[in-house]
Amino acid sequence: MFSRRHAIRLGLTTGAVGAVGAAGGVFRTLTAGQPAAAATPAAGKASAAAPVEPFSVPLTIPPVLAPYRRTGTADFYRITMRRTGVEILPGTRTDALTYNGSFTGPTIRARTGRTTVVQQINALDMPTSVHLHGGNNPVAHDGGMMDTIAPGGKRTYVYENEQPGATLWTHDHAHHMESEHVYRGLSGLYLLRDPAEDGLGLPAGKYDVPLVLRDAQFDGNAQLVYTMDDAENRTTILVNGRPWPYMKVEARKYRFRLVNSCNLRIFVLALSDGSATQHPVRQIGTDGGLLAAPAETPVLVLSPGERIDFVVDFSKYAPGTRLTLANMLGPGPTELVGQVMRFDVGERTADSSRVPDTLATLPALPKPTVERSFELSMDEPGSGGHQAYINGRTFDPDRIDTHIEWGSTEVWTVTNKSATVPHNFHTHLVQFRILERDGQPPYPAETGWKDTVLLFPGQTAKLQLTFDSHRGVYPYHCHMIDHSAMGMMAQMKIA
């Protein structure tokens, strides 16, 4: 269970974070009487009106891309990156950067041990780079920030999928452009399944539902407004590209795959019926795949780049019940950012799915031989500066910051040295395990394989990583990607 102690350790208290919403009262219960402050607009700015009435549009599911060719060992896809006018706000068209004209981008469904080959065609007027976030791939197919596709060019990425099943995603990574490119739409789902997972009996098919979260700001013509490092004004919450949607669900179990594709926004999510009653969910997976065992939790904490798989059993609720997926963290007005989507519960239907007590076997951690420390910082708001740093240095593509011996196991201690700004920390190529948060063990939902870890101001996390797959130069960076575009990125060479 996610306890008050865990909430405090994550920084989820009024004093540590501020701007914590009170949606549904769940957070007040979680923090055992500590009042939660309402999420508020930025100082001096009026509360923005919603561009559409919340819960007035149905949730849509990103299209699944069909391979144009299949062999005995591989599936082949072709994707074109292009500008497209898409309907986000009802009855309007918004200019977006898309994969195959879809916002959110199309989903690739892959299998462990079966190769996926994707030809990416850049029909845009700026360079792009496609990174499979969470993927274990050689440098040539990682989609690094300097390894770009020129306008009018094409690139073929090969993913061997030699890793456990997991909820992965693709996004643009062209340095200094990735922030705006992802904000304007260049991201898509990559759902990797494996035989071990298939045998568990988890909800599947139409009951296995992706929920890709992002936030946005629109002008009066329904066009996206992009300003670097602007967390306060992106107050329209989108799920699968739809503003505050509703979803009609049967009274049975559903598996949901949450992806935070926002540039900066952190979510603290809970099911709410408008009362102070807690409605726990069962978290079954995180960035790198399934947890060892389900973790019951009343809140789901998700920073940019992180993924969470969870199960809700709607048979516990009477038909006609309406449950809001509430967000309890700002910035922004509660009436906008304090709600994400709504589930409308229908009639009970047959359900043979289950959530077993054992989901996966996590291997024993090898003994580390190297320890390193990393400090994340940036020019604080109001300082006049606009740069971000790892160990006091901004990103330099010609510099190797960390030299790693192939096959080694290391412990990295990562500290957020910023006084007011949260960060997170993402590694390419390798998944890690969280050993500690501020000297204490991680809570159960963080005990699986991770590639992104959230750090509020002053927090420290100790991570264990093993570098035994591919050699070469890979980045690590803050995945609040406005921060990485501002320089909070470095490179490791594994040799």
From TrEMBL:
EC id: 1.16.3.4
Keywords: Capsid protein, Metal-binding, Oxidoreductase, Virion
One matching Pfam family: Cu-oxidase_2
Catalysed reactions, as listed in the record: 4 Cu(+) + O2 + 4 H(+) = 4 Cu(2+) + 2 H2O
Keyword Oxidoreductase: yes
The Plastocyanin-like domain, residue ranges: 83-196, 385-493
Molecular function per GO: copper ion binding; oxidoreductase activity
Enzyme class: oxidoreductase
InterPro entries reported for this sequence: Cu-oxidase-like_N, Cu-oxidase_C, Cu-oxidase_fam, Cu_oxidase_Cu_BS, Cupredoxin, TAT_signal
Subunit-structure text: Monomer.
Family indicated by similarity: Belongs to the multicopper oxidase family.
PANTHER family with a match to the protein in the record: BILIRUBIN OXIDASE (PTHR48267:SF1), CUPREDOXIN SUPERFAMILY PROTEIN (PTHR48267)
Protein name listed in UniProt: Multicopper oxidase CueO
